[in-house]
């Protein structure tokens, strides 16, 4: 049920934003600073939980701006979008509204690690997010720049502990009070922009950095440790100047898969989707990079950049002599620009033009805006609790790039979770945490608060030990019910839909389980499924679905009375059946850990050389702390559930 935007959206936005500048009140439950991907989800989530919320951001018209690539999702990131959607967040629905090229990445691998992804129309994405926020009950949006965070002096009973009381705006005469404040300032904290030999203050091209007062409060008054990271973006290229016949066309999926569990279709019809194009660098590109090195300040900085989204300079210097892929991606339905993914660069603009023209498809290309780099401060996230609250400052929450992550999806996921907890804190409700066993959001937050970051953190499926259970297809069953019943951030409408899906899937699986036939009978019923001849046992419908060439549609046409009612869930049932044995085993292991919480761990155990699969980091933590029980090991920061499972198996085997 794709949401419809009002046709007079722009007029509506200007009216609301003008009204928003006259604040109705000076006291809020929650104030969110920053209207990027973290801030928008945070503000919407806090309001959904029931908190009177204020979102303050530098410019209302940049709310929901895609600072870099016009795309959402991907491997690991798509899982986060589905989870944010399952908790009633905005980005999934915005992606379905703004998507112009949908594809499932990693399709050759199992569905657990498929990556739903879409190219987006930048303008449509921003308009959707702005329209949603400006019509959210209990949420006020204010254009302004936050100069200072207001905090109490340290508590004498608890030295070093502060409490946040509100914010003060640049040029603001009086403070605005709140019980909780969420900072989501992205790349803007002490931000500097780099292009060639020029450096200027900025959080993003065209936007000023966060005021120095904010960094001062975090570092000097609250004593928080900060670090510095960097990232960069490619030049935008005029589409008409590109010879696309020299690039390889990549069409979108013929059936777009929506991000949102509430949508059956995307706004863009299958035939309206725009293609992407693939091309690659030549030796000339490497030559220009080397010739421009002395003119490129950003590349000489020691600050760490995103390892998995490196600049063309870093790629060429790390892998000399190779050809590197460049994707030419559309920026929107009516946009005249292409986004060259893989060509992020910070050399002077004239060298950028020389570089792109070394690529055959771009030999006459024109640059609309040059690429640039940004360096910014982040707060070391080990200083946060699993609720994303600063441990030493009651009521202060941080989310998004300020915590050392990179990417819209990582920011959105943290924003939602910080929004939920900031609202709960303001409403005197206990904080909530999501575990690594139930969500990628739990993995993300746990990685940040227990391990910290040394380079921009992005999500991968390999970070989730329980990825076969944490699939994009089942995020609603994992999170929507909990989101409504325990967290309070999910609407009744979405909850009812999730209950309907859960009940239907349970009924369908029960029907498949009772459908038990001999392999001989199955071969007669489904001759197209290759069931091995020598097997003469019985198989349930669930077991039969585990065969590669069996589909739920086949079973439903053979047994229409018991199965045809569930055809709507064909793909989900196939995936459930395929992963069932593995997920059942994992669930049992998790239950066993919970049951064996009090199991003693031998005190003479040599964790550093234990012959089980444990990372060096986990070994060192266990060796240092030497927990007395399995439960104590489970609660240690940095110890993953998978490590506890391996420890449990080892101790049981040696008893
Ligand atoms: P942002 O989206 O940056 O939003 C921050 C918001 O806070 C802005 O709206 C800003 O106006 C507001 N704000 C800041 N300070 C104040 C203040 N004091 N008062 C009020 N409002 C304030 N990600 C990738 O995954 N890959 C990439 O290659 C990549 N390259 C990038 C290149 C550039 C040049 C930039 C700028 C970003 C890049 N990103 C990249 C990062 C991506 O944009 C971010 O990960 C994502 O936007 C983070 O979301 P956020 O909500 O944390 O912050």
UniProtKB/TrEMBL annotation:
SMART domains from the UniProt entry: GIDA_assoc_3
Chain ranges of the tRNA uridine 5-carboxymethylaminomethyl modification enzyme C-terminal subdomain domain: 577-649
GO terms for MF: flavin adenine dinucleotide binding
Keyword Membrane found: no
Alphabetical list of InterPro entries matching this protein: FAD/NAD-bd_sf (IPR036188), GIDA_C_N (IPR049312), MnmG (IPR004416), MnmG-rel (IPR002218), MnmG_C (IPR026904), MnmG_C_subdom (IPR047001), MnmG_C_subdom_sf (IPR044920), MnmG_N (IPR040131)
Domain of life: Eukaryota
One BP annotation, GO: mitochondrial tRNA wobble uridine modification
Cofactor(s) named in the record: FAD
GO cellular component, one term: cytosol
This protein's UniProt keywords: FAD, Flavoprotein, tRNA processing
Family statement: Belongs to the MnmG family.
Protein name: tRNA uridine 5-carboxymethylaminomethyl modification enzyme C-terminal subdomain domain-containing protein
